[in-house]
Amino acid sequence: MNFCSHCGARVALHIPPGDNVPRYVCDACGTIHYHNPKTRGGLRTRVRGEDRAVPARDRAAARLLDRSGGFMENGETLQQAAARESREEALIDVEIGSLLSVVHVLYAHQVHVFFRGRMRSGSYGAGVESLEVELVHPDAIPWPDLAFPSTEYTLRRYLEDRAAKREAHYFTSSSAAFKADSFTLGRAHGRMAC
Ligand SMILES: [Zn+2]
After folding, report:
1. Residue 2 C-alpha to ligand 1 middle, in angstroms?
2. Residues of 13-26 as b/e, b for ≥16 C-beta within 10 angstroms?
3. How far away, in angstroms, is 32 Cα from ligand 1 center?
């Protein structure tokens, strides 16, 4: 950032007294602008225990697919955020289940948190942020078209767990926000480490 969002003066990047990380500091009004990681709530959904399970979202111009999810609002829990995003993006009424994965996306300063979920009804559709929403059979997941490495990582853990009839949770970190970035850097694979 260049200017203080509080008073409009120019900010400088330095370590404030008592801190150990460089921050944008406004010397005019004294405001310290902290940039902390954003948390996304995501969701894997099953339809009443059936196999047909994964809501996919067509990301506008990129034509890449994603599960429903988005940034949290102030005052809501992770589970509430995941349920709200599923409502907004895929018109799905979902019961949030167990924690599935936490992916630290270091490059994008984000933390992606995924839950299992169960659709309370079979209805779904494209919300205002979605071009198209469909349920995809696990055998038909278009892996190369998934937008985010965190989605691919989580989907694979979900399917492994389901085959093993368990509900574990997983922590990992990624240095790429989008798979497109990975391709640009020539490191499309192997960026996720458990
Ligand atoms: Zn200021």
Report:
1. 11
2. eeeeeeeeeebbbb
3. 8
Share of the chain above pLDDT 70, in %: 74
If you measure from the C-alpha of residue 15 to the centroid of ligand 1, how many angstroms do you get, rounded to a whole number? 16
pLDDT, tens digit (0-9, with 9 covering 90-100), for 136-160: 888 888 888 777 888 889 989 999 9
Q: Residues whose CB is under 5 A from ligand 1 (ion)?
A: 4, 6-7, 9, 26, 28-29, 31
Q: Is the pLDDT score of 170 beyond 90? A: yes
Bridge partners (DSSP) of residue 54 are 136
Delineate the domains of the chain, giving CATH numbers in brackets: 1-35 (2.20.70.10), 38-184 (3.90.79.10)
d(CA 117, CA 192): 24
Q: How far is the CA of 28 from the centre of ligand 1 (A)?
A: 5
